[in-house]
Amino acid sequence: MQIRFNQVAVAALVAMGSVAMAQETVEVRIGHVGPTSGGIAHLGKDNELGARLAIEDLNAKKLTIGGKVAVFKLFAEDDAGDPKQGTAAAQKLVDSKVHGVIGHLNSGTSIPAAKVYSDGGIPQISPSATNPKFTRQGFKTTFRVVADDVHLGGTLGKYAVKSLNGKSIAVIDDRTAYGQGVADEFEKGVKASGGKVVGREFTNDKATDFSGILTKLKAAKPDVVFFGGMDAVAGPMLRQMKTLGINAKFMGGDGICTGELPKLAAGTMGDAQVYCAEAGGVEGEAKKSMDDFKAKFKGKFNVDVQIYAPYVYDAVMVMADAMVKAGSPDPAKYLPVLAKTSGYKGVTGTIAFDNKGDIKNGALTLFTYKGGAREQVAVVR
């Protein structure tokens, strides 16, 4: 009887040990930085929600990394779209020993923050920074999952001339790394396509009065006005163009290509008057995965996707996939695997990185607005 009891006790202890081993976990700290305060907070919050949804889905999957169940935690920071605050947020995440960072939203914050992450050995994937300089600083830790401004601005410049028949084109930028960068590439695209730039003006990313520069440009009689900047500035600019009687078509990059733009323009946008491009795009089979994501996002948060939440989601997933393949969340161990990412099937399409950390074969989606809503024109690669 005593022998039987000992056998049962031993068996119970072994079983308990097996359960304990099966439940051994590893904490994975993922940082996210975006402007969740300030004029473009709606875009920063959109990105952060994309990260939160990804973290929730990863934890539901109970992924194992190195034989341990991974418990993902999000460390979210606000950079307010300001470069100084952005580098401070980056340093805070490095000091918190996060295993990877998704962000920042803006090129102006992503570019200086990239050095902080590089110095800390922390992989960074931006879902939306499009300035070419971002991945050309020589840092091995820097990646992005969208096409850059060379592609975006150049494509829009060609579209303005060839498809919108722009004869006289004016260009305005907000002097940020993103705004000036995309405007420069747009201007190059216009000239390469045989178009004429009749004026180049600038403002800033917090301006509300554009009467001076718009009055000056009105004298040049542009049929297309391009703005390099964000929707918070583009909306009031559209209103003032209407007041001044400038009936030109209005164009911009991904910064204005949001669901909020019609509200910010206060009903002054006519159908097919505004054209923009999103630095990403899905077509064919991938369109269904994107539509499904948007429905899931709306059901979870009761808000519509603005622009880049799906790209944030994919960035988190790609990072986690590299950790799983490397068998460790240690940045030094999974970074080489992340750099070799090729053929990852995400919500936004197939993700693969080149030797600079740029996405290979990045797509652009051209949009216009009709009835106060975005309408896709074409996906361009």
Automatic annotation (TrEMBL):
CDD domains attached to this UniProt entry: PBP1_ABC_LIVBP-like (cd06342)
Signal peptide: 1-22
Xref: Gene3D superfamilies: 3.40.50.2300
Location of the Leucine-binding protein domain: 27-372
Keywords: Amino-acid transport, Signal, Transport
Pfam family, one: Peripla_BP_6
UniProt-listed GO biological process terms: amino acid transport
Entries under SUPFAM superfamilies matching the protein: Periplasmic binding protein-like I (SSF53822)
Family of this protein: Belongs to the leucine-binding protein family.
Listed name of the protein: Branched-chain amino acid transport system substrate-binding protein
